[in-house]
């Protein structure tokens, strides 16, 4: 059955959806109810991913091992009888990844992740206007995006074309190397208004559109290649939907799918975002990015490199057992220690490099719980910066929903975020918000958070407000110090 360009009306009520979640730390396959995108108990398979970090800023993943591990997840679900009754296949994927390909479509490089810092300085026309570029593409001319990644890759290998992880997974499953408007927007090479590749971005990258995956409409569907019929017979003829970028999927999956609500997602990294119609979108501030959800919607927000990875690093360094992985005995906002969570640097447009994390105010009275509390408070204050910008952009105090693995794992962090935001929050009851959101985008569902409703405690809010000016001053100093050190070491 060939792919179709027509609208898909979704599966009949009561059927099930197979969701593939292409993360940085794991690849997952899980089965969801088609009624409300809730997970089917026990129908989850996971393949752990270990990115390789090297000198010179490399942060890569073995592409072959990743894809084979993902397919192994489907084998596990098949073995356990979970691939019967599947009526749709959806994908949520990490944004920003890239692979250089040869003339036969073979990979010349590992999967380059968002954390990789290698790139080259672009050759720009004197008339280049980065603010106009940012307004049009939602991105900056930063090494995170393809206009700077591709020239670097072309200087390293004889590449003929380029694709991201979800594009290559779709090709492996269906035989068609295509991408969605959502994934394409994460390359920093999309004209957000038209949904097509941006001519100036491609000129900077030095490629033509035919060297990138074709962008298909949100209503496109493909089907599994015939070679998989014996391996997963229940999936034969099941429509495969275009992938959704994980940030957009996480927003929708946690219940933040219109401009009244900001979704805060805490996974390996963190973000705060608002989904809104692409038509008549508010003018994009320089500090925020904007990508696409689908043909009709965009998502505007701010991302942060330190979140769940920060918590995992610190609990490992401090050798905290499971009973001490939350600072439950530390009152929120009370720690004298202030942590600036720049261990993984900052996202654009700031230019703080990785390895810039700072603790201020340490004394011999502080213990592991104080350091952990300070780190979680620092991450919360970073996220709050983005939330307040979004409040201003959309002209209201936004409602907030919390979601993601970090949120699910830490009651203390949920309370800390709620106090930092100084407003009530709703918690998404489902940890797999990306997979849930991908199903919701593809099938037109509107999930609700379904979890606890938190109200900020007045004493905690007051302590955070007293902490905030000190944090802001010390953050500014940390940024200046990191930039000065970079100039010193590079000069």
Automatic annotation (TrEMBL):
Q: Return the Gene3D superfamilies for the record.
A: 3.30.420.40
EC number assigned by the record: 2.7.1.12
MF-aspect GO terms: gluconokinase activity
Supply the enzyme class, top level.
Answer: transferase
Q: Which keywords fit this entry according to its UniProt record?
A: Kinase, Transferase
- Domain Carbohydrate kinase FGGY N-terminal, chain residue ranges per copy: 17-253
Checking InterPro entries in the record gives: ATPase_NBD, Carb_kinase_FGGY, FGGY_C, FGGY_Carb_Kinase, FGGY_N
Pfam families from the xrefs?
Answer: FGGY_C (PF02782), FGGY_N (PF00370)
Q: Which domain of life is it from?
A: Bacteria
Q: Which residue numbers delimit the Carbohydrate kinase FGGY C-terminal domain? A: 262-442
Q: Which BP terms does GO give this entry?
A: carbohydrate metabolic process
Family membership, please give it. Belongs to the FGGY kinase family.
Q: What is this protein called?
A: Gluconokinase
The record lists the lineage as: Bacteria, Bacillati, Actinomycetota, Actinomycetes, Propionibacteriales
């Amino acid at each position: 059955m060939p792919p179709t360009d027509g609208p898909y009306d979704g599966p009949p009520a009561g059927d099930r959806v197979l969701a593939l979640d292409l993360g940085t730390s794991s690849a997952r396959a899980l089965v969801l109810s088609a009624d409300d995108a809730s997970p089917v108990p026990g129908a989850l398979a996971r393949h752990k991913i270990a990115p390789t970090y090297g000198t010179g800023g490399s942060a890569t993943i073995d592409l072959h091992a990743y894809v084979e591990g993902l397919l192994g997840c489907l084998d596990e679900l098949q073995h356990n009888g979970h691939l019967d009754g599947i009526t749709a296949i959806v994908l949520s994927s990490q944004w920003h990844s890239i692979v250089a390909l040869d003339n036969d479509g073979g990979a010349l490089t590992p999967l380059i992740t968002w954390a990789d810092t290698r790139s080259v300085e672009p050759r720009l026309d004197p008339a280049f206007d980065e603010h106009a570029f940012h307004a049009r593409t939602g991105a900056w001319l930063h090494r995170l995006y393809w206009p700077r990644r591709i020239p670097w890759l072309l200087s390293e290998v004889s590449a003929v074309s380029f694709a991201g992880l979800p594009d290559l997974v779709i090709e492996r499953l269906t035989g068609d190397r295509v991408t969605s408007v959502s994934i394409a927007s994460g390359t920093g090479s999309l004209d957000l208004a038209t949904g097509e590749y941006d001519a100036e971005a491609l000129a900077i990258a030095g490629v033509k559109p035919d060297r990138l995956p074709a962008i298909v409409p949100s209503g496109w569907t493909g089907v599994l290649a015939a070679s998989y019929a014996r391996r997963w017979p229940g999936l034969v003829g099941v429509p495969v939907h275009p992938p959704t970028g994980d940030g957009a999927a996480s927003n929708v999956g946690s219940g933040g799918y219109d401009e009244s609500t900001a979704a805060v997602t805490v996974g390996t990294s963190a973000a705060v975002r608002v989904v809104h119609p692409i038509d008549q979108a508010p003018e994009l501030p320089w500090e925020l990015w904007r990508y696409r959800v689908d043909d009709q919607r965009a998502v505007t927000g701010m991302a942060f490199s330190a979140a769940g990875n920060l918590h995992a690093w610190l609990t490992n360094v401090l050798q905290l057992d499971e009973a001490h992985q939350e600072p439950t005995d530390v009152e929120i906002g009370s720690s004298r220690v202030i942590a600036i969570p720049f261990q993984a640097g900052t996202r654009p447009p700031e230019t703080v490099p990785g390895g810039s994390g700072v603790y201020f105010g340490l004394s011999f009275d502080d213990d592991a719980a104080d350091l952990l509390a300070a780190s979680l408070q620092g991450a919360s204050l970073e996220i709050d910066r983005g939330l307040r910008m979004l409040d201003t952009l959309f002209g209201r105090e936004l409602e907030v929903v919390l979601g993601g693995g970090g949120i699910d794992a830490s009651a203390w962090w949920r309370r800390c975020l709620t106090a930092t935001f100084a407003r009530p929050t709703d918690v998404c009851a489902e940890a797999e918000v990306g997979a849930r959101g991908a199903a919701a985008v593809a099938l037109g569902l509107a999930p609700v958070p379904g979890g606890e409703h938190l109200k900020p405690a007045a004493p905690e809010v007051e302590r955070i407000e007293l902490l905030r000016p000190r944090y802001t001053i010390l953050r500014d100093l940390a940024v200046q110090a990191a930039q000065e050190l970079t100039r010193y070491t590079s000069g």
